[in-house]
Protein: oxoglutarate dehydrogenase (succinyl-transferring)
Organism: Crenobacter oryzisoli
Amino acid sequence: MMQNKVSHSYLFGGNAPFIEELYEQFLTDPTSVEGEWRDYFEKLAQAPGAAERDVPHQPIQESFIQLVKKPINGQRVSTATDWESMQKQVSVLKLIASWRVLGSRQANLDPLKRMDQTIVAELDPAQNGLTDADMAVQFNVGSLVGPQKLPLSEILARLKQTYGGNIGLEYMHITSSDEKRWVQQRFEGDLSTPRYNAETKRRILKQITAAETLERYLHTKYVGQKRFSLEGGESAIAALDTLIQESSGQGVQELIIGMAHRGRLNVLVNTLGKLPRDLFAEFEGKPTVELPSGDVKYHMGFSSDIPTANGPVHVSLAFNPSHLEIVNPVVEGSVRARQERRKDAERKTVVPVLIHGDSAFAGLGVNQGTFNLSQTRGYGTGGTIHLVINNQVGFTTSDNRDMRSTLYCTDVAKMVEAPIFHVNGDDPEAVCYVMQAALDYRMTFKKDVVIDLVCYRKLGHNEGDDPFLTQPMMYKKIAKHAGVRAMYAERLVAENILTAEEADGLIRAYRDALDKGEHVEQTVLTNYRREFAVDWTPFLGTHWAHPVDTTLPLADIQRLTEKFTAVPEGFKPHPTVQKVLTARQAMAAGEQNVDWGMAETLAYASLVTNGYGVRISGEDSGRGTFSHRHAVLHDQNRERWDQGSYVPLRNMADNQGDFLVIDSILNEEAVLAYEYGYACSAPDQLVIWEAQFGDFANGAQVAIDQFITSGETKWGRLNGMTVLMPHGYDGQGPEHSSARLERWLQLCAEHNIQVIMPSQASQMFHVLRRQLVRPYRKPLIVFMSKRLLRYKDSMSPIEDFTNGGFRPVIGDTTVADPKKVKRVVLCAGQVYYDLANARKERSMDEEIAIVRIEQLYPFPTEQVAAELARYSNLKEVMWVQEEPKNQGAWYQIRHRLEGLLSAKQTLAFAGRPSSASPAVGYMSKHVAQLKAFLEEAMTFTK
């Protein structure tokens, strides 16, 4: 029994705080507690129901009460007075713990005072057995920061000020005792009360004055134009200023910001220093930079170098479409690339900052995906500072009851145990204070942290929207609200920080500057040159047909193969993997043709050896979705991956480029957007996202439509990322056949992306090398057949790697006499081999030529025309595809083919019939359709 182990001298009511502290010590470090007590605490933690209790200390407190109630070895251990005293002490400790867990519900967070302020029973002393008579009694405060003993009235006052003032804290969901203790020390030590000097207070007033004045100036100058005003949340500008100024002192050199359109114009001008005159030009439809399509002003990005007391900080605001939170993983990817360019393994020099709307933060699944990336090896950025502009309305007309199913919009952040600092937006000092705390937490623990800035939206969703239509009571309160600037100015006047005339003078000075299209003072550095800036000029004005040598000498191929097929001494690969390695050695020796896995590996090995970086991500990318890549080898005699895995491509040369292959989380939207962001900041790396199946990209369509295919024409952003899309009709059902080729081709225009459908292994080798060696940065979309990965006819002789290059068009070399050809069949991808076999079976080699179009966009018009010109008696050109007629490439390239025909030639089609589904689900029907369109392709009509 426990009472025979634990010393009886501890079991008195006066020692309850000792037990509390001992248990706190146990939670922090179990080995620091004596063996008998450690055993006791471990048993309590395992007791039924212990894990479900709100307060971690409840099991020990209740167990201690039970021990004191019972006699031990026939002796009573406490008098009635001791027992009552102990009960009171335990109640005080429970009350402290309750305030830590639930205090945010009593905090003064809402500037409009519309939030539910129902008393939380657990925070009521009376509900804990404490009375007015106890208010003067001294109690031990346990782990509460401050004096070890205080009257109950003082304890309550400290708890209310810390947890129930203008700041509400949520951190007890964090399992790390170090992190929880850090938050307690910070906020309980300060009583959640900022103590700024007069100079800092004047700076804060200046920031919120600039925020409010800009909005009101735009409201009167450009009546009715959309700008998505920040009014009601002006304290966010002061918070960002605090972040920039304070971050440099902790070694931060870059802050990368992602945000939607609410308040974006204010951030551009008042945080990043965009000239007001340039903003005004955009309002007037006169952009300073002409782009093929351009974008609305509240989507545009900007970068500047801002001076601070500890040196310049480069601040970038990422370009963002209207899809709100989709920019978040893009920012994370860009940050990761910048950190790696700086060789910043501690991830301290570049920090991501994401600014959210309350409804979007809770509602859009990409946030869950981005949080899920945050602590993984291939995607972590050392923690993100999240600022939620919580205007309590959401998107347009939402009611809180309809916006989410959680108490707070920030509850999604609890999935990664991020601390959440709620703060009243009408207290700009508190807002700046929690921003400083958020920065310090992020830099200390390398984890995400969230600020929930509770404010309001003064106007409608946009400036043409009347919010009284749907939120009449809320907007009656807003109409009477003085605004944060006026209230803070009045507060500083009362504190004798400045006079009312000086406060009004700040408004006049800012308006006068706006009239001139200028800033009140210079806020950015104009001639500063950053050490790690990326130079994109070599990639400007280049063409997809730019000649480049992608071949490798045979000696280099064999040397590289020797490197990436070797394994460390004592390492035991899986037998299947060993066969792959042995086969690759034979391929390099010319003893057998090169397969697709070997072609890929040769491309990567050659690139990293020459100093280029390669980054591949996808849900099975290490092994390869179809077990063809084997870039990561696993020792069959070791359990742990970190000890039993070996990556040959990281061991090619002493000064090689980085090689990273990642088995990503199961979220295509967040991962693809992340890789796009990474590639935006890494033109010297081959950045690849691999879909497990082509249809998996459906969940990432926002990233495809709004970034990958349109980022250059909207924002002038070059990007060279590569997307590998498994595609091919093999009877695998509706989803896993098609990568929706038609969608990608529909998005093609203005040479925005490259769409490749290779049919030979060597083509894969050359196109991957071309993507980096050529001074041309456009997204590369590769539709690759899973069937061809092991199809012998699609493998390539070693000579195709030492000679030639990527061929946009592959002509027919089997035709003996081109003059006899009556029909040229054009196709792309794996269907070529079905057509070639059908032609051979029917002995149609003289009459039908088969030409492969390997690059569907930019369409190789000249090369196709040259192939067709070889056949002087050509009567008919037929496009053959394995996709249904209403899908695939047919309707997207038909006009291009028609433009190549003479008046005497006709254009025909063969393929599966139009279908609402991407493919059939029955193998018998799949085979019947294949036979039907092959027969059509091989039959001449009379």
Summary: Residues 214 and 220 are 10 Å apart (CA to CA). The chain has four domains: 2-156, 198-515, 554-802, 809-938. Residues 2-156 form one domain. The chain has 32 helices and 24 strands.
